[in-house]
Design brief:
heterodimer, A: six-stranded antiparallel β-sheet, 21 strands, 21% helix, B: six-stranded antiparallel β-sheet, globular, disordered N terminus, disordered C terminus
């Protein structure tokens, strides 16, 4: 949401006045105001209810091509002055770079993704609590073997960021989100398994507690009796949530800053084939229905659709204003600023793959005798510099014809961004944007090594 | 919160806030005031790339009513702001049950730490220049070093309706190095970090050099490393690998919230054998200067040394006030929270497998064919099934009892209790690692350690194709 009235905002005016008083000419202010509610239910009772409210200011100051950053959560004039002085003094220590200066205003967005549900502000606390209860009761009603949950949760967020800088840039972006999640536990004898599921909407009225509860319960049930799979090569089908998580983990490899500093294996790959011909990877913050939809990025630049990989050929790099200047290209609107307490970084908003025209069941049928990977463990160990990964996995056997067989666990899959994108055989038409950012679709991969139990080894 | 609120708390104001929070009932109210000053210098591409600094202050107020935690936080820590926060909590408390409040003890129960050594920004930059040179001098194949030096000063004041009033100051200094090495068309990276609850004196040139050289070595070793083998094999975890395995495979399952909700694989097994008789595990929040050390936890209770597993028998859990009361156990001082935005939950501090009696060299020599893990990256555990995974940042094949060629991108996965039960050799050495542990969306500093240990059979996930494993 763009707010033309913001430049006259008294808070911004006071901030620019304070900057002038401490001798700062090039400056950017990012005011963040964030309110959230979190209700956790387990065992039929509310375990915790948290209401958070955070406000703060992040300040970037530039002096002769040197940048300094400081932040405060104190709204007083004295804290503002102290924060400006700190940013100014820190800038004097940074290395000069002629292209380091405040972002210029960009052309206003010609679109406005639906990003707010005005009903959130009026939604009563008691109904939020009831949504969390409904998630848990739906899970426990699913089967007697689902006799408890780790937690059933309702959460919401109302977040506003105002950015103003000395170049005349002034933007306001505001969003609401509400989501329900469950971690259900299924038990059969001594075997106990857990599984999670979450779903989101712009506001609480768009949530479906019964579906969330039942899905979490069904997933936990499916894992009962899981055994380590054997070490072998197998075709893999990735659940759409797994696809999204992998894309998110590998996305830093597309960062312009990493390319600038030689910290990504994708440096100098633009124009080259880095994946199979079916792979078209897009980041699009302008999409309605994407968690990461936003009209402006963390520097106030208008966002747009950016193709990173087209038919297997790398086409794009994620830039903020600084890296765009260094590369001599236009900013792509990929500065991310999660809060006021850090300078913006670079990242994707709504990564997703273009479908290749098949359904998820059709992909499973093509992968006969393969593995359906439903969860990865250790995603934070993915190496964005080398693009390599080696991850724990759980999933299910795929039977000939595409039916799902027994559950497997304690297996590991390894590869690199090249081997992964090169192994794509098909992307299903079930794209869904998940909490956190990336969109996932079911994907079929060509045969890949799967590590598991040695054939001669009994269970430990 | 200004500095003065921690040094000169106004007991009358705190009392009014707590009384107001309990105005509509509740068993217990607790006000958590926090002020954290943080400074981060980021060195990249041979220069100071980014310098940032700031202050985060705020208050978290919780009211406990039976098994329910009501919590709210705010950045407004003025008297009016705190009373408004209390008013909000009281309004939200549906099940009103008035309790008689206790008077606050006027003097804080704990004192403040001695001020840690400070350094000027110029001194810190000079240390980063030294580190950058050390990384590049290590090997001509090093092409990039990204270095981060952060210092944090955290002050907290905790007041509760039982009359407790506690304050504490915790310093934290962290230095991390991410080094990139390139040879031919191959790009590899190595990471290493060191961190302590201490001041500038911790970060000597020798310490910085050790960290960057380790990161550079790991990056360069990976350049020549073969794909890791895949399959099940004996694994020797070096003491230098740090204690990620004990943290993931065992520690989380012994946090009492999981135990209490029958979510932990260890639930109901107190007093039972849960690991090999060679394995004893301790969590110790009192070790001077360690990353998980502080005088008190975030509920005001003193940090302790907590035996968890004694010669294979489960003897203890990690508690908050609430879980200790529910399980009728003594509190252990493990109620930790990331900041005033969060409720305290049971967390590890400095967790380790105690040294055993075996010679580390002899443990390696005992394995004819397997994997030697020299350095561990991150890990993750599924509490309910006990399945864990962790990534090997530096690993080597073992051939005929000797460390052989390096292998890259190995991941180890297994079931925690089964792996702990199978450990059959425990070295007399002990090596520490530092990390940041995430749970329930909260991240807290921890450290972990272990001796050299042998696990007879563990799943190794690598990119080497099955059947290619050399015999």
């Amino acid at each position: 949401m763009m707010d033309a009235g913001f430049p006259s905002d008294s808070r911004a005016r006071a901030a620019f006045d304070a900057a002038a008083r401490c001798g700062v000419q090039q400056v950017e202010f990012a005011f963040v105001d964030s309110a959230s509610t979190r209700v956790v239910v387990a065992g039929g009772v509310v375990e915790s209810l948290e209401e958070r409210h955070d406000q703060g200011l992040g300040v970037r100051v530039w002096r002769e091509g040197r940048q300094g950053f400081a932040f405060t959560s104190d709204a007083s004039a004295a804290a503002l002055a102290r924060t400006l002085e700190t940013a100014r003094d820190l800038a004097s220590f940074a290395a000069p770079d002629p292209v380091q200066r405040p972002p210029s205003p960009s052309a206003p967005a010609s679109f406005a993704p639906r990003n707010r549900d005005p009903a959130l502000a009026e939604f009563p606390l008691q109904r939020k609590i009831q949504l969390a209860h409904d998630v848990e009761s739906s899970a426990r009603a699913f089967s007697p073997e689902v006799d408890r949950v780790r937690k059933a949760m309702y959460r919401d967020l109302d977040h506003t960021m105002q950015i103003a800088n000395s170049e005349g840039l002034a933007t306001v972006a505001s969003l609401t989100r509400a989501w329900l999640s469950i971690e259900a536990v299924a038990q059969r004898g001594a075997d106990q398994r857990t599984a999670a599921y979450a779903d989101w909407a712009l506001g609480p009225t768009g949530l479906a507690p019964e579906r969330v509860g039942r899905t979490g319960a069904a997933r936990a049930m499916e894992r009962l009796g899981a055994r380590p799979g054997p070490t072998r090569r197998a075709p893999l089908v990735l659940h759409r949530e797994v696809t999204a998580a992998l894309l998110e983990a590998l996305s830093p490899a597309f960062s312009g800053l990493r390319a600038l500093r030689g910290r990504t294996v994708l440096q100098d790959q633009v124009g080259r084939q880095i994946g199979a011909a079916h792979v078209t990877l897009v980041d699009d913050a302008t999409l309605d229905g994407a968690w990461g939809a936003t009209p402006v990025d963390g520097e106030g630049q208008t966002t747009r659709r950016l193709t990173l990989v087209e038919s297997g050929v790398m086409r794009g790099v994620l830039h903020d204003c600084y890296t765009a200047r260094r590369f001599g290209v236009a900013p792509t609107g990929h500065a991310l600023r999660p809060g006021y307490d850090g300078p913006p970084g670079i990242g994707a908003h709504a990564l997703h793959l273009r479908p290749t025209g098949e359904t998820a069941p059709e992909l499973l049928a093509r992968a006969g005798d393969g593995l359906f990977i439903t969860e990865l463990m250790g995603l934070h160990t993915v190496n964005p510099t080398t693009g390599e990964f080696s991850l724990g996995a759980v999933g299910r056997e795929i039977l000939p014809g595409g039916e799902l067989g027994g559950p497997v666990d304690q297996i590991a899959i390894s590869g690199s961004i090249f081997s992964l994108l090169g192994a794509f055989e098909a992307v299903a038409d079930d794209l869904e944007f998940l909490i956190g950012g990336a969109g996932g679709a079911t994907v079929l991969l060509a045969e890949a090594p799967v590590s598991g139990a040695a054939p001669e080894t009994k269970d430990p | 919160m200004t500095q003065s609120i921690s040094e000169h708390p106004d007991p009358d104001l705190l009392r009014r806030v707590l009384d107001q929070a309990l105005a509509n009932g509740g068993d217990f109210a607790e006000l958590f005031l926090e002020c954290t000053d943080a400074e981060v210098l980021l060195w990249d591409d041979g220069k100071l790339d980014r310098a940032s600094s700031g202050r985060e202050r705020g208050a978290g107020l919780r009211v406990i009513d039976d098994d329910l935690d009501w919590f709210a936080n705010s950045n407004d820590v003025s008297a009016d702001g705190l009373l408004a926060l209390a008013d909000r909590s009281a309004r939200n408390l549906a099940c009103a049950r008035a309790k008689e409040a206790q008077p606050l003890d006027p003097p804080p129960a704990t004192g403040a730490d001695d001020s840690p050594d400070e350094a000027s920004i110029a001194e810190k930059i000079s240390r980063l220049v030294f580190a950058d040179r050390a990384a590049r001098d290590h090997d001509p194949r090093v092409t990039q070093a990204t270095l981060s030096l952060s210092t944090v000063r955290r002050r907290v004041l905790i007041a509760n309706s039982s009359g407790g009033l506690f304050d504490d100051r915790t310093p934290m200094i962290t230095f991390s190095a991410a080094v990139v090495a390139r040879a031919g068309g191959r790009l590899c990276s190595g990471r290493e970090a060191t961190s302590a609850s201490r001041g500038w004196e911790f970060l000597s040139e020798a310490k910085v050099a050790e960290v960057v050289r380790n990161a550079a070595r790991i990056a360069c070793v990976q350049l020549e490393a073969a794909p890791a083998p895949s399959g099940t094999m004996p694994v020797v975890l070096s003491s230098q690998a740090g204690g990620t395995m004990v943290h993931e495979a065992c520690g989380h399952g012994l946090e009492a919230d999981f135990y209490l909700k029958r979510l932990s694989i260890y639930t109901g097994r107190l007093g039972q054998k849960v690991a090999s008789g060679k394995v004893s595990v301790v969590d110790d929040g009192t070790l001077p200067g360690r990353r998980g050390t502080s005088r008190i936890d975030d509920e005001g209770l003193p940090a302790q040394r907590v035996p968890l597993i004694d010669k294979g028998v489960l003897v203890g859990l990690l508690h908050t006030r609430r879980t200790a009361r529910r399980l009728r156990a003594a509190p252990t001082g493990n109620g930790r929270r990331q900041s005033h935005h969060h409720l305290p939950i049971p967390r590890m501090r400095n967790t380790f497998i105690c040294p055993g009696e075996d010679d580390p060299e002899e443990i390696l020599a005992s394995v004819p064919d397997g994997l030697f893990v020299a350095h561990v990256g991150g890990g993750e555990v599924d509490i309910v099934s006990g399945n864990f995974v962790f990534h090997c940042a530096e690993a080597y094949r073992i051939r005929r009892g000797k460390r052989a060629e390096a292998v890259r991108d190995a991941t180890l996965t297994g079931a925690g209790p089964a792996v702990l039960a199978s450990i059959d050799r425990v070295g007399r050495d002990l090596g520490w690692g530092e990390g940041t542990c995430g749970k329930e969306g909260q991240h807290v500093p921890v450290s972990h350690a272990q001796p050299t240990i042998r696990i007879p059979a563990l799943v190794v996930g690598g990119a080497e194709a099955p059947g290619e494993r050399p015999r």
